[in-house]
Amino acid sequence: MSETILPGRVLIVAGSDSSGGAGLQADIKTVTALGGYASTAVTAVTVQNTLGVFGIHEIPVDIIVQQMRVVLDDIGTDAVKTGMLHSPQVIDAVAGTIDEYAEHVPLVVDPVMVAKGGARLLEESAEAALKTILFPRATLVTPNVPEAEALTGMTIENADDQARAGERLLKMGARAALVKGGHLPGDQVIDMLVSEDEGWEKFTSPRIDTMHTHGTGCTLASAIAVNLGLGFPLSRSVARARGYVLEAIRTAPGLGMGHGPLNHGHTLKS
Question: Facing residues of 57 across strands?
Answer without folding.
Answer: 45
